[in-house]
Structures are given as C-alpha cells and as structure tokens.
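Is this the right way to post structure tokens for a design question? Let me know if I should format differently. Anyway, here goes:
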C-alpha cells in the first residue's frame, strides 16, 4: 500500500482514493491479462510483491542478466541505512593502524551503547555486515543479531 500511496501517479496522496483507483486498475488489467508460459520460448522476469520474490525465466545473455540484477536491487520504498565504525580496539589505544586486535574495554562499552541504540530503532529484518576483523565482529556480536562477514569490507593497505 505504501508504494502505491507514495507513487507519482497519485500526487493527492489520499489513501482511500489511491487504493480505490488501484483496485479498479487491476480489474481493467484482468480483462486482457494473459499469463506467461514458462515453457514457451520467452524470456521474462516476474517481480512478486514489490521484490519479495522473483521468477526469472530463460534469461540468457549479459544485458538480460544486468536487467535482472538491477530489478533485484531496486528499492521502491524509503529505507534507512546505518553505517558504523567498530568500537575502539586495543591497537587504537597504542596508535597502531591496521592489524587484527579485539575491542578495548571502551570499545566494548561502545558496542553495548550501539546495541541499545539499534534496539530503540525497532528495525524489522535488520541486516548487519562486518569485515572479517575481530574488532568489527565483536562490535556486531554485541547486537545479538545475525551478521555477515564480507572480505571486501576489510581494511586496505593497513
């Protein structure tokens, strides 16, 4: 519903009018709608529930795969992305850059404060990404949620 109400098709943003019009549009589409046959020799991408699921059929070349990638990564609803550094590390205390040290006591305090902040946000389906370094993993572990480690997030030349 939020996607339709915030659509440029409906500048007045009256939820009731928007939904009525949208449902009327669907009824009109039903008259001419023909389902695509996955066994036919057609390439198509079916986006279900605004990107919740995708059906990709007979995508065979580079351009088609780029279109699939684009559609799978587009977000039509506003969302918040939080970026955060790890808590203070043992190496931070001695001025050492790089390495793979764990969190200092103050870094652990920061991680707990971050946990409190994240809990207050009441984020549904929170995704947390970290590098593969101890200090980032320890910061993420304090959140008590699943996290993914990404090598590409590791420091470069440090």
């Amino acid at each position: 519903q939020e996607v339709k109400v915030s659509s440029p098709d409906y500048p007045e943003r009256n939820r009731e009018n928007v939904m009525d019009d949208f449902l009327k549009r669907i009824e009109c589409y039903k008259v001419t709608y023909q389902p695509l046959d996955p066994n036919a020799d057609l390439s198509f991408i079916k986006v279900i529930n605004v990107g919740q699921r995708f059906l990709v059929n007979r995508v065979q070349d580079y351009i088609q795969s780029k279109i699939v990638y684009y559609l799978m990564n587009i977000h039509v609803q506003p969302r918040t992305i939080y970026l955060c550094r790890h808590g203070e590390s043992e190496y931070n205390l001695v001025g050492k850059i790089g390495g793979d040290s764990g969190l200092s006591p103050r870094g652990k305090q920061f991680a707990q404060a971050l946990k409190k902040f994240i809990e207050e946000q009441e984020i549904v389906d929170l995704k947390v990404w970290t590098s593969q370094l101890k200090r980032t993993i320890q910061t993420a572990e304090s959140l008590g949620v699943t996290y993914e480690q990404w090598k590409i997030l590791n420091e470069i030349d440090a």
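Format looks fine. Someone answered above. Worth noting: Residues 90-153 form one domain. The mean pLDDT is 91.
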